[in-house]
Design a protein that fits this description.
The complex is a heterodimer of chains A (250) and B (429). Chain A is α+β, with helices and mostly antiparallel strands and 250 residues long. Chain A has 7 helices and 6 strands. In chain A, 15% of the residues are buried. In chain B, the strands form 8 sheets. A 5-stranded parallel beta sheet of chain B has the order 5-2-1-9-25, with helices on one face. A 5-stranded parallel beta sheet of chain B has the order 11-21-12-13-16, with helices on one face. In chain B, helix 1 packs across helix 9. The chains are: A alpha+beta (250), B alpha/beta (429). The interface between A and B is medium-sized, with 25 and 29 residues. Strand 1 of chain A pairs antiparallel with strand 19 of chain B, so a sheet runs across the interface.
C-alpha cells in the first residue's frame, strides 16, 4: 500500500510520526569554547594516578559542537577505527579477541564482578585500571540490594554498546550529536526463573530500547544511525542470536 | 576506440585465450576479443546459456526490463521493451547472440583443470589439453547454492531444496515450508509456494527493498538514470560491503507488480528473523528482524528521495506520476524466535541463501585469498593472465546484470590485450 506524498519538502524534513522518542534539532554552536573544555578531560584520562578524578563519574556533556573546520566532533577517533579495520583486514589473527571477567561471591546474592585484562591484537592487553561491578537482588526478593541485578547489567551492556555505536556512526557520517539518552526496559515473567511454569522462559520476553537523540541531522538520518549501530553492535548480536555457552567446574 | 593486436599466437600457445563458460559474460568477452583480433575459444560444459537452461525455476523472469538487456552490439528488439523475459526467452536471447557473433564455442566440453604453465596456463578438458596465455572465468556467479553449515543439522525428515533444483511448489511435500532468505529469490519462492496452499514461514535477514515501478517508471530505469548501476568498483566507499549487498526484493511479472514483505504478510506468509542456527531440532531465529526491516525501509526512503531530487533538478515533475511513500514494513510485536522442525508442521526448507561461483577446477593457488575466495581487482585476478567476469560488483554495480557484461568485457579485453602484447614484445615477436 502506498501513501501519497503532499510535497517533497515535507517528506524530506518531516516524515510524519510525531510520537517517536527521537528529536531533531538543527543548531550551530560556537566551536571556540570546545577545545578549552575538552583539553583538561583528555589530560585527566591519561593520568591514571589521579584517583579523585577517576572515581568521579564523567560528567554528561550538556553541549557538544562541531570543530572549527565544521566537522562533527563526538569524541570518536574515526580515523583510528578505520586504520584498525584496515590493519586487521591485513592481519586477521590480530582481530581475535578474548574478553574476560571474574566474579567473587560475597554473601547471599551479592557478588562482585571485575574486568581487568583481555586478549587481542596478538597479545595480552589491560584496561587502564580494574573496574568492579556489584550485583545483587533487590529487597523485594528478600536480598540486600547491594548492586544492580545481573539482568539490569545486561541492559547496561546493551545500552552502552548501542550508544557507543551511535556516537561512532554519527562521527563517521559527520553528524554532530548534542545529546543521546537511551532508556531500556526488559520484560520478564518471574514464573520462569521460579520454576512455576515450564513454558515461560527465564530470560527477557522482549527488550525495548528508546533513544532520545539531539543532533544536527534529519529524523531519517538519526534513525539510520541508530539502525547501523544495531547492525554493528556486539551486545545486540549476543542478545538477539544464540550463543554457545560452556559452564564448567574446575 | 579499439586497439588491434596481432592475431598470431605465441610460439607456445595452442590458442592465446580460453574463455570458460558461454553465457552472456563469456559471449560478451568473445565479441570484444574478436573485435580486437584476438583468437580464442569458449569451453561450455553444456549448451550456450546452460545455467538458464538447466538450473532455474519455472516461473522465473529476469528482474531487468527488456530494454535494459543489451550485449555488445545487440539489444532486445521485440514488441514489449518494458516486459521481463521468461527463462526460455533469456535462453533464446543469449543463443541468438552466440550465433550472431559466430562465437567459437565448444559445447559439451567441461573444463577439468586449469594449471599455471610457464607464463601461461594449461587447460584440460576430457578431450584435449590446451596451452594458452590467458583464461577468462565466465562460468557464472550463481553456480553453487550457499547453504549455511548448520543446514546439515536439519532433522532427516525435512526435505531440503536449493533454488538450483527447485522448479515449482509441486515438488515440495505437502505441509509447511520454511523459506530461508528474503532477497529476490526468497520472496518469489515464498510467494508462489504460499499460493500453492502451503503455509510459509520466511526467515528475513538484511535485504534491499524496492518498488517495481516508481512514479510510473521501472525502478531499474531510475537506478540507471541516477548512475547507480554504472558506479565503479574503485569509486565506492566500501567495496567489500558493496559486493555483499543482496539482490533487491523484486519480481518481473507482466503486471509489473511490487513484491515486498508487506505483500507477503498480507497473504499470510509469516516473517521471522534471520535463521541463526538449528539446535535440538529447532530452527532458532535472530531477534533483530525489526532492525533489518527498518534499515531496508530507510534505505528505500533515501532512494526515492534521490529519484524525486533528480526529477525536480531536471524540472520534469509534470512528466511523471506523483511521488508516493510506501508503508513501512509491518513486523509483528513478537516474531517467533524458534520453530520446531520435528513436530510435522514444517515439512521442507528452501535455502534462498545465495550462490557462489564454482572454481573447483581452477588449480591456481595464487588466484585465491586465505578464505578460498577468488582474489581480483575489478576482474583482474591476482594470478597474472586470469580474468573474471559476471561476479557481483566486479567492476560496476551492474556487473552481474546481462547489460553489465559489455563495459566489463571491454575493460578486461583491453587489459588482456595489453598483457598479450607485452608478452609478445618480451619474447621478441
Amino acid at each position: 500500500m502506498a501513501t501519497k506524498r503532499k510535497t517533497k519538502a515535507k517528506s524530506a524534513r518531516n516524515p510524519g510520526k510525531k510520537t517517536a522518542p527521537t528529536r531533531t534539532v538543527k543548531a550551530t554552536r560556537k566551536p571556540a569554547k570546545k577545545s578549552a573544555r575538552r583539553a583538561p578531560r583528555k589530560r585527566a584520562a591519561r593520568q591514571p594516578n589521579r584517583a579523585a578524578k577517576q572515581t568521579a563519574p564523567a560528567a554528561i556533556p550538556t553541549k557538544r559542537s562541531r570543530r572549527a573546520d565544521g566537522s562533527a566532533d563526538n569524541g570518536v577517533d574515526v580515523a583510528a577505527l578505520l586504520a584498525a579495520r584496515e590493519a586487521l583486514t591485513a592481519a586477521p589473527a590480530g582481530a581475535k579477541f578474548k574478553w574476560r571477567a571474574t566474579c567473587d561471591w560475597l554473601n547471599g546474592t551479592h557478588a562482585r564482578s571485575a574486568v581487568d585484562g583481555f586478549f587481542g591484537l596478538g597479545g595480552e592487553q589491560a584496561h587502564r585500571k580494574r573496574y568492579a561491578f556489584e550485583s545483587d537482588h533487590p529487597e523485594v526478593f528478600a536480598s540486600e540490594d547491594n548492586g544492580a541485578t545481573p539482568v539490569e547489567m545486561v541492559l547496561c551492556g546493551l545500552a552502552g554498546c548501542l550508544t557507543a555505536g551511535v556516537a561512532s556512526v554519527a562521527q563517521r557520517r559527520n553528524v554532530q550529536l548534542h545529546s543521546v539518552k537511551a532508556t531500556l526496559e526488559g520484560s520478564m515473567d518471574l514464573q520462569g526463573i521460579l520454576g512455576i511454569d515450564g513454558d515461560v522462559r527465564n530470560g527477557f520476553d522482549d527488550i525495548v530500547v528508546s533513544f532520545e537523540i539531539d543532533a544536527d541531522a534529519s529524523r531519517d538520518d538519526i534513525e539510520a544511525i541508530v539502525a547501523q549501530s544495531q547492525k554493528r553492535s556486539a551486545v545486540y548480536d549476543i542478545i538477539t542470536n544464540p550463543t554457545n555457552v560452556a559452564v564448567v567446574v574446575k | 576506440m579499439t586497439v588491434r593486436v596481432a592475431t598470431s599466437r605465441t610460439a607456445r600457445d595452442d590458442v592465446p585465450v580460453v574463455i570458460v563458460g558461454a553465457g552472456h559474460s563469456g559471449l560478451a568477452m568473445s565479441a570484444m576479443l574478436a573485435e580486437r583480433g584476438v583468437e580464442h575459444v569458449l569451453f561450455e560444459r553444456g549448451e550456450v546459456a546452460n545455467a538458464w537452461r538447466t538450473e532455474r525455476w519455472d516461473s522465473l523472469r529476469l528482474l531487468t526490463p527488456n530494454w535494459q538487456n543489451t550485449l555488445p552490439g545487440y539489444r532486445y528488439d521485440g514488441a514489449d521493451p518494458d516486459g521481463y523475459m521468461t527463462v526460455p526467452e533469456v535462453v533464446d536471447f543469449i543463443a541468438a547472440y552466440a550465433e550472431r557473433i559466430a562465437a567459437p564455442v565448444r559445447t559439451r566440453t567441461s573444463v577439468k583443470s586449469v594449471k599455471p604453465e610457464d607464463a601461461g596456463f594449461r587447460v584440460t578438458t576430457a578431450a584435449e589439453s590446451i596451452r594458452c596465455s590467458a583464461v577468462v572465468l565466465a562460468n557464472g556467479a550463481c553456480a553453487i547454492p550457499s547453504v549455511p553449515a548448520f543446514g546439515s543439522s536439519l532433522p532427516a525428515s525435512i526435505v531440503q531444496v536449493t533454488p538450483r533444483e527447485y522448479r515449482n511448489p509441486g515438488m515440495l511435500p505437502d505441509g509447511g515450508v520454511l523459506v530461508v532468505g528474503a532477497s529476490a529469490t526468497g520472496l518469489q519462492l515464498a510467494d508462489e509456494i504460499h499460493r500453492s496452499g502451503r503455509s510459509v514461514t520466511l526467515a528475513v535477514g538484511e535485504h534491499v527493498r524496492m518498488p517495481r515501478v516508481y512514479r510510473g517508471a521501472d525502478v531499474y530505469r531510475w537506478l540507471d538514470v541516477l548512475g547507480l548501476l554504472d558506479q565503479r568498483f574503485d569509486e565506492v566507499d566500501d567495496l567489500v560491503r558493496a559486493r555483499r549487498v543482496p539482490s533487491p526484493q523484486l519480481i518481473g511479472t507482466p503486471e509489473r507488480a511490487t513484491l515486498d514483505l508487506n505483500a507477503l504478510t498480507a497473504n499470510g506468509v509469516v516473517l521471522v528473523g534471520r535463521l541463526a542456527t538449528i539446535r535440538d531440532g529447532k530452527a532458532l531465529f535472530s531477534g533483530g528482524l525489526r532492525n533489518n526491516c527498518a534499515m531496508a525501509d530507510l534505505k528505500l526512503g533515501r532512494l526515492l528521495d534521490a529519484i524525486d531530487g533528480w526529477i525536480a533538478a531536471h524540472g520534469r515533475d509534470n512528466e511523471f506520476d506523483e511521488p508516493v511513500r510506501f508503508e513501512r514494513t509491518r513486523v509483528d510485536a513478537a516474531p517467533a524466535l524458534s520453530l520446531d522442525l520435528t513436530g510435522g508442521s514444517i515439512r521442507s526448507v528452501v535455502w534462498a541463501t545465495g550462490y557462489r561461483p564454482d572454481y573447483h577446477w581452477l588449480d591456481v593457488p595464487a588466484a585465491f585469498d586465505q578464505k578460498g575466495r577468488l582474489q581480483h581487482d575489478g576482474g583482474v585476478v591476482a594470478a597474472p593472465g586470469l580474468y573474471a567476469l559476471g561476479l557481483t560488483f566486479l567492476r560496476r554495480r551492474k556487473s552481474s546484470f546481462i547489460h553489465g557484461a559489455t563495459d566489463d568485457a571491454r575493460d578486461l579485453a583491453d587489459h588482456l590485450c595489453g598483457r598479450l602484447g607485452a608478452s609478445r614484445r618480451k619474447s621478441g615477436r
